[in-house]
Amino acid sequence: MSNCTNSLPIICIDFKKSRFRIHKNTLRMLGNPDYIQLLVNPYKNMLAIRCSIREDRLSHEVRLERYPSKNSYELYSNSLAANLLHSNQHLHFGNSYRFYGTLNSSHKIALFCLDDAVSISSNDYGEVAI
After folding, report:
1. Which one-letter DSSP state was computed for residue 58?
2. What would the pLDDT profile of 90-124 be if each residue is shown by its tens digit?
């Protein structure tokens, strides 16, 4: 993979399994947080990953040390996947998509435009983890 994409935050969404795969490099860019939130702005059609704290009931604990061989952190959410599919007609159930984002390091947030989906074929999915 080129250096250009290594410097961008990346998230992959597998709508068949309702899986949200956040690449380790994206978490490194955010400062290796212990907790994160997934946020959606339906008006701008954006998905965000924001650093969070333990006391926030909407946060997810990131425990990468449990899975040192994995190249990404995975979350599963049927309701979030269904809502994203419902509000984005260009995304389809059963497909997987990669999203390249931007980083706002001062606010510790990675932003992904859902309109910029890159479809991943089932043969390419193994290459997704970087």
Report:
1. T
2. 999 999 999 999 999 899 999 999 999 999 975 44
Q: What is the pLDDT of residues 57-89, one digit of tens each?
A: 989 999 877 666 678 899 999 999 999 999 998
In one-letter notation, the amino acid at residue 111 is L
Strands 35-41 and 46-51: antiparallel
Q: What is the maximal distance between C-alpha atoms in the chain?
A: 40
Q: What is the DSSP string of 101-123?
A: -EEETTTTEEEEEGGG-EEE-TT
CA 49 to chain centroid: 7
CA 79 to chain centre: 15
DSSP bridge pairs for 112: 47
